[in-house]
Here is the input.
Amino acid sequence: MRLILSIETSTPTCSVAIHRSGELVAQKLVQEEGAHSKQLTVLIDSLLEENGMKLDQLAAIAVSVGPGSYTGLRIGLATAKGLCFGLDIPLIALPTLQILAEAYRQTKPETKGAILIPMLDARRMEVYASAFDAQNLMEIFPAKAVILDEYSFSELKEKPLIAFGNGSEKWRNICLHPNMTFSIQPLFPEAQYMGGLAFEEFLNNNFQDLVTLEPEYLKEFKGTQPRNKAW
Here is the structure.
């Protein structure tokens, strides 16, 4: 029975989970400012301890690689890399929007025949978005930064579309797409939804290089420069 630790830090929610051969054993999460840097390793330690497990029992570690929070993604990936290096186990990378789409599939089973549009807020009218076939989670178009307007996703016309995630709320009142519906259920990518995706990657030996793997930011990070003080 393969144990995989999943780490999700792309949003303000910091979550970790243990799956056994793709089935959820337990999850721990916290939502507070600075949780990724302060709580991630604490969550991992307590998750394992509470379930009578040790790090050396892990077969692999799966991590969400973006898009999402610059700081959160860096911390999550660095932690996953460090653990994989120390334990000499493989690293699995999962796209954040695919995790969010899987979360919707698990919580809303009546999605057959639809196209899923997971969205994460990227401020103002911009979102990170992708599109997946609800039946098999096949990617229809890759993750990208989208500036929303009334006619966004108009190229997807043949099937019902379902938009969800914290980026979809601001689009609801202006969307003119005739086949679009919106989920009102608050939904975030969490580690508990990564198990099946991670186990499939594990069985296919689809592992990542610890040196070269980087987060998928989609947008260039722009730090703020401190203002010069007038004395």
Remarks:
- DSSP finds four helices and ten strands in the chain.
